[in-house]
Batch of 2 targets.
Target 1
Amino acid sequence: MIDLDYTNLHKINPKHGLSENEPESKNELLPKFIEKVHSHEQGFYTNIDDSKTIQKIQDFAKTTRAKYSSIIILGIGGSALGSKCLIQGLCHLFQNKLKTSSAPNVHIIDNIDPVLINNLEDIIEYSKTLFIVISKSGSTPETITQYLYFRQKTNDKKLNPKNHFVFITDPEKGFLRETAEKDCITIFNIPKNTAGRFSALTAVGLLPALLAEIDINRIISGAKIMRDKFLNENFNENLPFKLAVIQYLLYEKGKNIDVLMPYSQKLTGLSEWYRQLLAESLGKKGKGITPIRALGATDQHSQLQLYNEGPNDKLIIFMEVEKTDTEITIPNPFPEKKELKFLEKNITFNNLMKIEKVAAEISLTKNDRPNITIKVDSLKEETLGESLMMFMGATAFLGELLQVNAFNQPGVEHTKKIIKQSLLK
Ligand code: PA5
């Protein structure tokens, strides 16, 4: 379950926060906005009903998983960050798979740095590797060049491409689709109505997750719970709308930077995914919210000083996981030491993390810095599904509030064109 606590906004100077009634001032817009969202005919909240594709993903993973020791995702932007978020959020932090599973390791290669490619080759065995090439357009220079490189390598080793590649791409056209048809490579579709950053709950995010043995049905059922909220015309029930309105009202008060700061190592992938979602969806027509990705408690010693006493232009969105399966008590073998007195109550790392977050929250509130908390009861498949849907829904509503098209990315496409032209010179 996910909840939103924005009471700190009422405790600070209203110039920088929100009075109790302010968020509800926009509630009459909600029914109209839901209609507008429907009129865009976007798939991000309907893809989870596509049981045929979900079954195809499951059948493929069942017959495939045991054959490989490494799964390599080749993709960039929205074609990589959804799977990164799910794998980081649900797998072992150092093994890229579930702690107890014999599943292959999943690595996401979303850059063209030759050192990254070279180091990856040090740890994979080609004959036991499956490359999942993800590109909606099928022509993104970074992804296609990665594919060509690894395809050449597998060709040199006389490996059959249909056993070592899977493509996730446009349902009708593009270089990847043509290649798949020619070489009998398995292909999954990215629905036409789904932009990359909104595709985490399609094969783009779900196939890599399932290959890492994550239960994708549970992710989908969490996403469906939040989808019902997203389409609910009652302001108090509609968490994505509430979040969007808070972000928007504070944007109007000059808070044009939003910091997402989870107090959970496993949510770093979610922050990275959200950074793209917010930036690429809303950064248009001279408008937009600049996203910052932060991590508690780590960034209390890196950025918190700025948030507390620098320009008052940010909304801090904390994320807090209430229950974790792992509990570790901090030993205190030196009870007589004055410097370690703060440990005399037998505290756990879990408590320490909570206390650190509350301390950051108190200091920010005292300094009139707007901050809210997204509360997650526990980090599991369902709550990650809920989180993805909550942020996608809120971003769609922010598009309406800011009057920009949240679903295109002309600036990104323009740069892709320039790259290709420069290579021809
Ligand atoms: O969100 C988006 O649409 C973009 O970030 C794309 O995902 C990114 O540019 C990669 O494009 P493609 O999937 O066509 O390779």
Note: The domain at 47-217 is CATH 3.40.50.10490 (Rossmann fold).
Target 2
Amino acid sequence: MTWNHAMPERPVVAVAGATGAVGIEMLKVLERRGFPAARIVALASSRSAGKRLPFAGGELVVEEMTPASFEGVDIALFSAGAGVSKAFRKAVTDAGCVMIDNSSAFRMDDDVPLVVPEVNPEDIALHEGVIANPNCSTIQMVVALKPLMDLAPIERVVVATYQAASGAGQAAMDELYAQSEQFLAGEDLTVEQFAHRIAFNCIPHIDIFLEDGSTKEEWKMVVETQKIMHAPDLQVAATCVRVPVLRCHSEAINVTLASPVSLEDARSALAGAAGVSLMDDPATKTYPMPGLLEGSDDVYVGRLRVDSTVKNGFQFWCVADQLRKGAALNAVQIAENLLPR
Ligand code: HSE
């Protein structure tokens, strides 16, 4: 099937899940980047209908999302969860509207491109009505790996993530605040959002466990990276950990290339890459840190060094705002790529 609906120069854009942490960030990113929308429609469940959200100096009134909401809409940015995306897919695409979906519902489907615009923008043209936004921890890793992959094929990646509460949504961020206060006051901690307390703790468990002992979050980093980078044989070993940080995921990445690349070449490739900021000067204790990069757009890379325990190995540290590049910004960048040139 080919998608034969022309995109107007000024599309009507819907944000589905507009009151969630990612939805709110999507509105901010649309506004800040001056997305040329004819109109923005804020959609959410009936519970949130009627709420007012600030937008461009005025307000958007949240409407209840129904299948009819997508008539006359050109692009729908979805951040309402996989079940909602599945339930609304047909209504959205039948209306001639392109769904850019932040959930895991369709990411690995053959007819759905999985896109990070700095890495595989060419895949956008292959869509049949749905384009998937990858998982946040995958997005920042592939943005940082792409400049290295342009120098030499990547053979293997070993990554450990340090994922902020924001990855689990606003309620999880609220719980980190609340538990921290309870902990400092010597009170019992209320644990609802994670398997264990997150305040003053690290939890090596994100999403469900799979039969091989890995978690689904770790599996996503493997298969999504292979799909986005068009590298089905790329080996990825991931350990995903939730840490008591509000927003911004961090990753310790170890990469093995297929042929030699100098540290200087790796450094200049990263420094010049779209969407990457190199923040790397040990002499001045300069490196990216999640607590200081909230609200930033780029993927920050630091601590770049040779891994001399393997042939052609590098290791580095990488931080990005999960709600921005890990979700809302990546989705809006995909939408920008849909605009007529
Ligand atoms: N799955 C990620 C997390 C959110 O739990 O941190 C990515 O959008």
Note: The chain is about 25% helix and 25% strand.
